[in-house]
Specification:
Keywords: Cytoplasm, Cytoplasmic vesicle, GTPase activation, Lysosome, Membrane. This protein has three domains: 49 residues, Ypt/Rab-GAP domain of gyp1p, domain 1 (Arc Repressor Mutant, subunit A, Orthogonal Bundle), CATH 1.10.10; 91 residues, Orthogonal Bundle (Helicase, Ruva Protein, domain 3); 125 residues, Cyclin A, domain 1 (Orthogonal Bundle). By secondary structure, it is mainly α.
């Protein structure tokens, strides 16, 4: 189907005057009026465009299965979700696993463990393992994005569960994918990272297993999570590639592995929006843009 030149002109004009996404917002509002909601179309929309902040949490809840496609049931289902949240929390308090001083993200972790029947029966809870640290990192970022604790818990739980189930076998291969695309974009930078011994030591766990939580400010992070929640973990590779490309001059001037790793662990936060925008463009360039929206 041929593209509408008038629509392209309008979109270009909107973007030029600072109203990028005006038509996309209208398209999303039309999709959200469907009953039942078409989850596949919502995922395609999220893959193509950034979600407007006013609809983001609602769309995430639908995409993650927290809310069903039938809009008529949303209030009822969220009522059940709130009851379940209260019941789990009260159970943890009754067995004295959590108390008033327990950090909220740890409360979420213990709730998640209780539901998954992974909570230690001993009086002394084991310190968080690696998977728990991934959960806690994602929880801390989600807590900054979502105000309501019930919504926050369900989003963390379903995000982590979906990510592990859907992409758990793929994530170990993402470093190789990063090497492939970085070689295509800047082979000289790749060679430098290899020569310093940095390529195998890059912060892959926070980048890939924690989906950049703790690495990017939430305003930038949520745009990456739009893509992950709607079905792509490949976006994580392109965010990593774009971080390396954006700081190429800095990295090329470093010869010591420790310096490179320290810089990436304490990455400047001021231009992360631009990095994410470029990463999404790079992702679309190499992987294509979903077209079957309607």
């Amino acid at each position: 189907m041929a593209e509408d030149p008038q629509r392209n002109f309008r979109s270009a004009y909107y973007e030029k005057v600072g109203f990028r996404g005006v038509e996309e917002k209208k398209s999303l509002e039309i999709l959200l009026k469907d009953n039942p909601l078409d989850v596949e179309k919502l995922c395609t929309f999220s893959q193509r465009f950034p979600l407007p902040s006013m609809y983001r949490i609602h769309v995430w809840k639908v995409q993650l299965g927290i809310l069903p496609p039938h809009s008529d049931s949303h209030s009822l289902v969220m009522g059940y979700r709130r009851e379940q949240y209260r019941d789990i929390l009260e159970a943890l308090k009754a067995i004295r696993v959590v108390h008033a001083a327990t950090p909220q993200v740890e409360v979420y972790l213990r709730m998640f463990q209780l539901e998954a029947q992974e909570l230690s029966r001993s009086s002394e809870l084991a310190p968080p393992g690696e998977d728990d640290e991934n959960f806690l990192s994602i929880a801390k970022s989600m807590e900054e994005i979502v105000e309501d604790p019930v919504d926050c818990y369900w989003l963390i739980k379903c995000f982590v569960t979906q990510f592990n189930n859907k992409f758990g076998d793929t994530v170990p291969h993402l470093p190789k994918s990063l090497e492939h695309y970085l070689n295509m974009e800047d082979s000289r930078l790749l060679t430098h990272l290899k020569s310093c011994g940095a390529l195998t030591k890059l912060p892959y766990d926070p980048w890939f297993w924690r989906c950049f939580s703790g690495c990017l400010p939430e305003s930038s992070l949520q745009r990456v999570w739009d893509k992950v929640i709607s079905g792509s973990c490949k976006i994580l590779v392109f965010v990593a590639v774009e971080i390396l490309l954006s700081y190429k001059n800095k990295l090329m001037g470093m010869k010591r592995l420790e310096g490179i790793l320290q810089f990436l662990a304490n990455m400047p936060q001021e231009n992360t929006d631009a990095i994410v925008t470029k990463a999404i463009d790079l992702w679309h360039k190499h992987c294509g843009t979903p077209v079957h929206l309607v």
